[in-house]
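sorry for the late reply, my laptop died twice this morning and i had to redo everyting from scratch. anyway the thing you sent over, i finally got around to it. pasting the sequence first so we're on the same page, its 205 residues, then the predicted structure underneath. double check i copied it right bc i was rushing
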Amino acid sequence: MTAAEPGRDIRRVLRVSVTAVVAVGLVLALVAARDEPVELLFYFTVQVNLAYLVVLLAGGGDRLRTALTVYLVGTAVVFVLVLANPWSRYAMVANADARETISDAGNLLLHVVAPPLAAAHWLSRRPRVALRPAYAVGLLGYPLLWLTVILLRGALKGGEDRYLYPFLDVPRLGYPTVALNAVLFAVSLLVIALTAVHLTRRHAR
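ok and here's the structure:
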């Protein structure tokens, strides 16, 4: 056995594990949202996990893998500290019925289990070429586009949950608070992205 073989085995295990977790999590999310499956596709977490699953199965470049890993870690931070935190003003409390149990299981897999596995997989296959800080700033483009679509959709569509997340609920919070929340989340995501960039620069030395 060569020195590289244990590393390949670890990467293989991580890849299979995170692929299974993401796939099962997405299936559970779809089952929980069976009455409105199209609505599910607007969620940032679902979009990122779908894209990440495609990359895991079909392959993708280092920059794309890094971007999706950063987004996954970002969703974990928001979920744990904001949405699933009972002391947060934006906590989303689920009802204890069978459908919510399925939804909770999907959320747990996609927000809590998949992101650290994805981060570990990325660390085991860090890009060989160092990324620049400008790349980290560029990663804010997709979340900004997503936010724009959600706000426009919320303004044009009726319904209590049309803004998807409580921290984007314009009728309840107003645009200034929503904008502040968006800036705070953008800063958090930028810190994660800059950390990834720093790790690639150390790896490339």
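Residues 94-99 have pLDDT under 50 and may be disordered.
thats about all i looked at so far, will dig more tmrw
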